[in-house]
Amino acid sequence: MSEKQLRLPVEDEIFIRELFGDFDSNKKVIESTLNINIVLREDELVLIGEEKSLSIARCLINELFKIRKEGESLNSQKISYVMNLVLEGNNSEINKLLGEAILINHKGKPIKPKTIGQKSYISVIEKKDLAFGIGPAGTGKTYLAVAMAVKALKEQRINRIVLTRPAVEAGESLGFLPGDLKDKVDPYLRPLYDSLFDLLGQEKYLKYMERGVIEVAPLAYMRGRTLNNSFVILDEAQNTTKEQMKMFVTRLGIGSKAVITGDITQIDLPRGKFSGLKNAIQVLSDIEEIGFCYLSDKDVVRHQLVQKIIKAYDKFEKEKN
């Protein structure tokens, strides 16, 4: 088929700069994926390629321009994600990414879901008393749950945020680690601290921690408690036992909401121990007030290489089984 040209007028310099990327990195990905050439001539983009490819490229650039017009910056991850949606014919889904921010962090940055899966995850958290976010590393499960907790606290819908995770992972035993209990468990809880610090900033973070408004603790500390008017998050839930999971989900008190996150492909429990997260999926899936959201490699928002790594491991595991 003969090549054709498509001319698109573009006067937004920031849009062009972000669309092309550093050293034309984004432009090269678009060109290789859609099998087209993109040339910038004064105030217009000239696209060269077959008619079908040009039609897809026009749609992609229009959708990216809409996103940029809403104040969203364009990076390689976002451009690739939107391009995949366009290629799959899911253009209508892209508008779901243009909603309001969950909250504004201490640096003035709006925190928003970056994928359709993340948007669904936020919706489940909003609608259900107990929400499960299940998916691979890098899909924003923990960070978005903490963001929703901070939002609920700011809106005074809860009085306290409680963040917890199993204290022992990757086969390490606390008894053999140096230091007091705080020294031993802090490394396991560090990702939760990091999320809070990023969302709140140092001053508010320290103030809330000192006042007990925010509590970060090992899962064992939840036993025997009733958590009222709280937003409770259990992270790394794949490393709970069945008994620990049952203990946690029965801590929920009046006016409280809970989110449980985990990746069932990264279970570090000793041989012979069944994951409490896997068990909960089997036992609790029919309860109306409980929601489940399954994220995939498409929702990974870290380096694009992470997405490829997750796909490779998934493929290997499927072939092995």
What does this structure look like?
With 321 residues, the chain is an alpha/beta fold. The chain has 2 domains: 95 residues, K Homology domain, type 1 (Ribosomal Protein S8, Chain: A, domain 1); 218 residues, P-loop containing nucleotide triphosphate hydrolases (Rossmann fold, 3-Layer(aba) Sandwich). 45% of the residues lie in helices and 17% in strands. It has 12 helices and 11 strands. The strands form 3 sheets. A 6-stranded parallel β-sheet has the order 8-7-9-10-6-11, sandwiched between helices. The chain has a 3-stranded antiparallel β-sheet with strand order 1-3-2, covered by helices on one side. A two-stranded antiparallel ribbon has the order 4-5.
Give the name of the CATH architecture of the largest domain.
3-Layer(aba) Sandwich
Stretches where pLDDT falls below 50 for ≥5 residues? none
Give the overall shape: elongated
How many structural domains?
2
How many strand units?
A: 11
Structural class: alpha/beta
Q: Per CATH, what is the topology of the largest domain? A: Rossmann fold
CATH class of the largest domain: Alpha Beta
Radius of gyration: 23 Å
CATH homology superfamily name of the largest domain: P-loop containing nucleotide triphosphate hydrolases
The arrangement of helices and strands along the chain is EHHEEHHHEEHEHEHHEEHEHEH
The percent of residues in helical segments reads: 40-55%
Strand content: 15-25%
Strand order of the largest sheet: 8-7-9-10-6-11
Largest sheet: 6 strands, parallel
Number of helices: 12
Question: Termini, distance in Å?
Answer: 43 Å
**What is the residue-averaged pLDDT?**
88
Protein name: PhoH-like protein
Domain PhoH-like protein: 111-314
Keywords: ATP-binding, Cytoplasm, Nucleotide-binding
Family: Belongs to the PhoH family.
